[in-house]
């Protein structure tokens, strides 16, 4: 938040993204990880388009998150962000009805109840902090 107070949100987002990119680009310089990347890359080639799409969505989500923090208090943004698991569970439940082969997780009423209970604990924890 201090970075966003001193500069605009796009500057904070850009420097954070560049730092992350530089850090990730340093990983192949370590010989152990370079070997692992070399041996495993062919198995990931099939899902490369999905991975790239996911990264663009993550990039956009991070930009929106930083922009939201520039507009209001960080505690409010984090409180709203804590509701994300509920939306993911709702999305999974709706999509699983129409495309059941898309999910490999066992979606039973007991599992959904357990997830809602734990997500509720997360939200309660955030509300206690805020």
What would you note in describing this structure?
This is EamA domain-containing protein. The chain crosses the membrane at residues 12-30, 50-70, 82-100, 112-129. The chain is mainly alpha-helical. It has two domains: 1-71; 73-130. Helix content is 81%, strand content 0%. Helix 2 runs antiparallel to helix 4 (48-71). The longest helix is centred in the middle third of the chain and has 24 residues, at 48-71. It is flat and about 45 Å long. The model has no long low-confidence stretch (mean pLDDT 82).
In short, what is this structure?
By secondary structure, the protein is mainly α. The protein has 7 helices and no strands.
Which sheet architecture does the biggest sheet show?
Answer: none
Using the alpha-carbon principal axes, give the shape. Answer: flat
Our Rg estimate from Cα atoms comes to 19 Å
In whole angstroms, how far apart are the ends?
16 Å
Helix content: over 70%
Helical segment count: 7
Count structural domains.
2
Question: Which class of secondary structure composition applies to the elements?
Answer: mainly alpha
As a percent range, the share of strand residues is under 5%
pLDDT below 50 for ≥5 consecutive residues: which ranges?
Answer: none
How many strands appear in the DSSP assignment?
0
User: What is the H/E string?
Assistant: HHHHHHH
Q: What is the average of the pLDDT values? A: 82
